Amino acid sequence: MKVLLFLLLTIAQVLPALGQEPDTLMLLTQEQADSLEFRLKHHYTNNFNFQVKADSLILVPQADEMADTCTVMRGDIIAVAKIKKQNDTIWVKVARDQLTMGWVAEPDLLDAATPDDGISVIIDRLTGTRAIWMSSLLALGIIAILIYSRRHKWERITINGSGEALMLMLTVLGMAVIYTHIQTYSPEFWLEYYFHPTLNPLILPGIMSLLLTLAWAVVIIYVAFLISVYHNFYFVPGMKFIFQITGISMLLYLLVSLTSTFIGWYTALTLAIIIAITIITVYVRFLRHRYQCPVCGTLVHDKGTCPECGSRLI
Q1: Residue 26 burial (C-beta neighbours within 10 Å; 0-12, 13-18, 19+)
Q2: Domain end marker among 91, 115, 139
Q3: CA–CA dist 141, 272 (Å, integer)
Q4: pLDDT per residue over 226-250, tens digit each?
Q5: What whole-number distance in Å separates Cα of residue 49 and Cα of residue 80?
Q6: How far is CA 161 from the centre of its chain?
């Protein structure tokens, strides 16, 4: 969409110089060209719908309008009716209905509203609470690792389902690197996706297509990982293992996100992949358990007496 709009704007500027008639179908008026230019820079234009996320948003009339100040509330859908620039400030006229409309400064609008799309709303909420949910997942993983290592020592940590765990970590790492790269070097791609989201990676620009593909891969691999844990673990050991791998994945994600802007995202991805492979290799080679106690679910290296409940494994 962005490329198409750019091409239309370019055609509108080039055709007159090529001697085309002013009334040609491809020739845009100045107002249309300005609207397209605004759309390219701000990712929305007239008739675009927003959903109010703040408790309220005050809409004020302009000096030449006979109207009163009005307020829209959380959850209201408002449409962009007009856009103008005044004193270096962009003012947007929005309307909830024919009786509730007014002007609001663009920064206030973007702070108080999100694009009226379910994906955009989810992105906004996840971004706003990113520190909370990522810290929670990381804390759960660390706690699970500490409790498990304290009770069972490191020789009893398992890596059943290690293939899915390794794939999950590597995919999360790749997604972290691509996301950080976009936010640092190409934020306009992320803004365009935020205002016009889709779940189809095939219609997106290259780097955004890759990011969305990796996001889908994370979901699919995580489901496969959960299925593997379900078939190989009892409930309590399985939940501990899920928390462990989730916590390690979040730790690697944060590591890449915080370091890729300083040491380069290719270097960060390489280091993170090496770390992930090393973790999995150590687990598989030295800490893998081949048996599980049918009574309490404790994972052990060899048959014999269960160190947890004393049951005999044969």
Answers
A1: exposed
A2: 115
A3: 18
A4: 988 888 777 877 887 888 888 888 8
A5: 6
A6: 26
Q: Is the pLDDT of residue 75 over 70?
A: yes
Instruction: State which residues form the domain around 84.
Output: 47-115
Q: Considering the entire predicted model, what is its pTM?
A: 0.72
Joined together, the tokens standing for residue 254 give: 């944060």
Q: How many domains does the chain have?
A: 3
Query: For residues 130 and 281, what is the distance between their CA atoms, to the nearest angstrom?
Result: 30
- In one-letter notation, the amino acid at residue 120 is S
Q: How confident is the model at residue 152 (pLDDT cuts 50, 70, 90)?
A: very low
CA distances to 70, 144, 158, 169, 234 from 231, in Å: 58, 20, 14, 20, 8
Judged against a pLDDT cut of 70, whether residue 177 lies above it is answered with: yes
Q: Are residues 125 and 257 in the same domain?
A: yes
Q: Give residue 289's region: left, alpha or beta (phi > 0; psi -120 to 50).
A: beta
Instruction: Report CA-CA distances (Å) from 24 to 3, 13, 17, 30, 99.
Output: 21, 12, 13, 14, 39
